[in-house]
Amino acid sequence: MQLKTKHLLGLENVSSSDIQSILDTAVSFKQVLERPIKKVPTLQGKTVVNLFYENSTRTRISFELAEKRLSADSVNFSVSGSSVSKGETFKDTVRNIEAMKVDMIVVRHGSAGVPQYLTKISDSVVINAGDGIHEHPTQALLDMYSIREKLGKLEGLKVCIVGDIAHSRVALSNIFGLQAMGAEVSVCGPATLIPRNIGDLGVKVIHNIDEAIQENDVLNILRIQLERKARAAFPSTREYHKYYGITKERMEKNKKDVLLLHPGPINRGVEISSEMADGEHQIILEQVTNGVAVRMAILYLLGTRQGEDN
After folding, report:
1. Pair (156, 222) in one structural domain
2. Which of 169, 163, 162 is nearest to 130 (CA)?
3. What is the pLDDT of residues 79-122, one digit of tens each?
4. N or C: which end of the chain has fewer CB within 10 A?
5. Judgement on whether residues 127 and 168 belong to the same structural domain of the protein
6. Comparing C-alpha atoms, which of 128, 180, 157 is closest to residue 13?
7. Separation of alpha carbons 217 and 260, rounded Å
8. Per-residue pLDDT, 306
9. Domain match, 130 and 142 both
10. Are residues 155 and 69 in the same domain?
11. Is residue 3 part of a domain?
């Protein structure tokens, strides 16, 4: 399989054929993860740097495992203890890292647009692991893989993204990716957490969580990003849970068998109750497992086309 793009900066302009290639390739790598020896020599000799300027658990470990499973040399960069703390600029940091002859850079940064900028100052393949509140393409791809694996398709499904849409990079990537694959996307949450012009992207806006449950096949539940000042958008987390939290009582009232996703970390008792977070409707831990397979697919497809033209 051959991707049309050299980098993965977001899903806004990624074709359905490229998304299909990634998802299909991930199926093969999921099988690798189920073997006793979970390793293939696919990227042996390649060096991947994980350039993380933000804290991360799932994404960083997932990428590192994916790289090791592909036999790539994996190097982790952390801002704390680096020359950044001594005043070194991002540009100089990247150029010094690249001077060590790396092949691929996985970058997470608090500022939107950093992955795009990285392609201008670097010759390495760039993969966006989350930039500000812009995009998080690999999360959306693993979400789509998980939905397709569970329900057998993406086209024609109704998927609602619930919660803190305004501060979420996961939401935007999911919207672009799901729409490209033929799904019908809506968003649900308080008006203060939904961007005013999001309807321009072709998504339906719902403010009633019961309506969202009744109308959709899948709910992708986002956490309330308190670190991004989301707390100011509603009176209290208790009130948010009362009106928008996914609970057993709410699901039973609506009598709908809806698939529940959550990119993590979970705020139990806020966007979802512990009972539902551990219940039969959710595939949260399956998403984590699938994340390694999907990231293996992305690294493989981009890493084996390095040096070719866009």
Report:
1. yes
2. 169
3. 765 666 667 888 999 999 999 999 999 999 999 999 999 999 99
4. C
5. no
6. 180
7. 9
8. 47
9. no
10. no
11. no
Instruction: Name residue 240's amino acid.
Output: Y
Domain limits at 112? 16-135+288-303
Are 154 and 180 contained in the same domain?
A: yes
Q: Is residue 4 part of a domain?
A: no
pTM exceeds 0.90, yes or no: yes
Q: State the total domains in the chain.
A: 2
∠ CA 268-79-293, nearest 5°, is 55
Q: Over the chain, what HEC string results?
A: CCCCCCCECCCCCCCHHHHHHHHHHHHHHHHHHCCCCCCCCCCCCCEEEEEECCCCCHHHHHHHHHHHHCCCEEEEEECCCCHHHHCCCHHHHHHHHHCCCCCEEEEEECCCCHHHHHHHHCCCEEEEEEECCCECHHHHHHHHHHHHHHHCCCCCCEEEEECCCCCCHHHHHHHHHHHHCCCEEEEECCHHHCCCCHHHHCCEEECCHHHHHHHCCEEEECCCCHHHCHHHHCCCHHHHHHHHCECHHHHHHHCCCCEEECCCCCCECCCECHHHHCCCCECHHHHHHHHHHHHHHHHHHHHCCCCCCC
User: In this predicted structure, what is the pLDDT of residue 81?
Assistant: 53
Tens digits of residue pLDDT in 230-265: 556 676 888 999 999 999 999 999 987 899 999 989
C-alpha span between 99 and 248 (Å, rounded): 54
